[in-house]
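Troubleshooting: if your tokenizer reports a length mismatch, compare your output against this known-good record of 321 residues.
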Amino acid sequence: MASKRNRDDRPTMIHCEFCGEDYASTYKHCPFCDEIPMDEAGGDGEDESSHSARGGKRLVTNTRGGGYGRSPSPLRLIGIIISLAIILAAVIIVIWFIMPLVTKGSSAGDPLTLPSSQPVESVTPSTDSPAPTDSAAPVETIPADQTATDFTLSLTEFSFSNRYPDPITLTVTFIPADSTGTITWSSSDPEVVAVDDTGKVSAGSKTGSATITATMPGGVTHTCLVHNSVTTGGTSTETNTGTSTGSASLSLNRTDFTLSKTYPSFQVKVSGTSSTPVWSIGNSAVATVSSNGTVTYVSKGQTTLTCSVDGQTLTCIVRCN
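Known-good structure output:
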């Protein structure tokens, strides 16, 4: 175990006559000023007593201690200023931008604090005023006696021709069953096909196609495409319109018609003969025909129905939607 150090072995303190500091006798020279007079160390020429009274060499540059009294360099001042500016910018970013985002969801009823001088009242939506409405947009009123929510049409496409120019009435089936409603009818081109307020569609003065639109209050609409090829009031003998080649006494009751899933079949008849006709269909994937001339819908498309009787051939266009 190490013996205790005697008081006599302790180093004595020496008072430096140059800088006025006390240092241990273990140093050969004063560690504060190296015992250099003020005039030799770059002083201002004052006497030693005045230096000692102010603390001596501790008040001037100390080369061994790192220069306690030395002024900061310009580069160091610039670095300090830049550091302070960066810190200040970071604080501003946190206060003005990040803090509102963090505190936004803290309270559902609190308005969002905006980083501006604008009062909060000017940006907080008022709960007392009603939401703006578009006064120009008409509001359709549904009649009180209307119980239907939807409807269907008996046909979605059909054709008028010289062979069959008679008007066709579109029938409406309301949904759900036994419900009631009001239908408004319109035609995209009344000169091609016209429609009245009962849904009766008639061929117009021009050939072409037009769309019949049925509208029910509440925004429910359905359409039917109508083709009009009526050019005269009589019977045509051209084969490309579905008439016979040879004697004009034979004719079909339809030369162009349309089938759909809601109107899946139609019986074509031949007049002007008592013979039994032979029926055939051009594309059985679109429609089929029975021995009595009944054409049945199969899939979407168009094909030609052919009737052979008394050595003559009659044709009819079949459209399937």
